[in-house]
Structure formats: structure tokens, C-alpha cells
Known about the structure:
Strand content: 35-45%
Number of strands: 16
CATH architecture of the largest domain: 3-Layer(aba) Sandwich
Order of helices and strands: EEEEEHHEEEHEEEEHEHEEEH
Structural class: alpha/beta
CATH topology of the largest domain: Rossmann fold
Number of domains: 2
Number of helices: 6
Helix content: 10-25%
Radius of gyration: 19 Å
Amino acid sequence: xxxxxxxxxxxxxxxxxxxxxxxxxxxxxxxxxxxxxxxxxxxxxxxxxxxxxxxxxxxxxxxxxxxxxxxxxxxxxxxxxxxxxxxxxxxxxxxxxxxxxxxxxxxxxxxxxxxxxxxxxxxxxxxxxxxxxxxxxxxxxxxxxxxxxxxxxxxxxxxxxxxxxxxxxxxxxxxxxxxxxxxxxxxxxxxxxxxxxxxxxxxxxxxxxxxxxxxxxxxxxxxxxxxxxxxxxxxxxxxxxxxxxxxxxxxxxxxxxxxxx
Length: 261
């Protein structure tokens, strides 16, 4: 059952007996509460986007505080709120993992427990991704870890290249990769970080975790990430300014967490 709006394209699904529409790429666009997804004709699905701002939860309070110029300069509070958002998203990701049944010995007998069976690698794009990474890791405390150094190198006031200097990562082959980057502005850093990590293998599944994404980044990543990737984002903003910063956004997440460079 699908209901949706994605990239300003409105759709109603044929399961309701109503008219569907599609864009020039022959994609159907559907929304189910906070879920944005794209479906093509042969029943393959491409990147799914979960926008938490479309539903009511305490996460919206945390995203409001990290945006607020009167609150966000408290670095401890900023980092704590980002970690909280990471924890909430990690819980939601956990619902999509593979599970197995284990017998657990209690003082009074044997209990069955359904526990995740996937091996996770939680990756962060440095340095801004570290608080978000920690929040995800708080829930997936037995996960392996990876780190990618990616940054913008400006050629002038308005043009830049994204450089990846190094990665530190275990094998990601056949593992669930959770890649944390707080701001998806153009999507280029995420694309290059993922490509760099592919030197360590091919993941079973990719989950991208972000605080704020632009519409442009989502559209860009749709063609760059695996077809079954899921992007989990606290909020989606409509615009980029001439410097390619998200508007209204929140500013520089790395500087707000750790101080100016």
C-alpha cells in the first residue's frame, strides 16, 4: 500500500483504484507516512528515503534545537542532540535487519530471543559525522567501525571539489553498512565515501544516516547509490545557496560540534 509525494511529484497508487503518475524516468513515486520511495515498472525498487520530520516524535525537538541559533552553540548540547538522533534512527534501522532465534538461559529456565543476525559496519565521514556515528554505535555496540576523510576544497567562492584522503575500515563484504554523514548538501561527499569503502568489499545492504538533506542531494544520490539503499534523514530541506550549503539547514555541523577549523 503506497501513498506519496516525492520531488514535488504527487502519486496515488493503483492499489486504491486511483490514478498513478510518473516522471520522465518512468519511476513511480510513493509516500507512506515518512517514507519516500521510488518504484520502476519491473518491480525493482530504487533508493528509499525515510524523512522523520514528516511524523510526530521527540526527534523533531532534537532537530529543532540543533538548528536554533540560540541553542546550537552549546557544543555539548549540540553533540548530545545529534547522538540522540543517531540512536533513534539506529532503532528504526534495527527493524530492517535479519534476525535469528537464540535460547537464553535465565535463573529460572530457558527463554527464546529474536536477535539481529547481520554483521554491521558503522562508518562516519570525518569529522562532522562523529557524533552521529556515536549515536548509532550506542545501539549497535557490537558493530565494526569505519572512518572516511572527505572534505571540500574550494577553487573559488562558489566552486569546489570533494577530496577523499584516506579510509580506515574492516572488510564490508556481505555486511550491513551504516554510513553516517550529518549534512547531505550536494550528495558528492556521500557518493565518494561510499565508492572509497567499496575497496573493502561489497556490502549486503547500505543504510545512509543523516541529519538534514537537500532535495538536490536526494535526487543526485538516487542515481549513485545501490538500488536497495535506504536514506534515513531527520529532515529534508528544499534549497542550496550559492555556496552549496543547505537552506535553512543548520550551519556547519563539524564546527558546531567541535569548534571552528
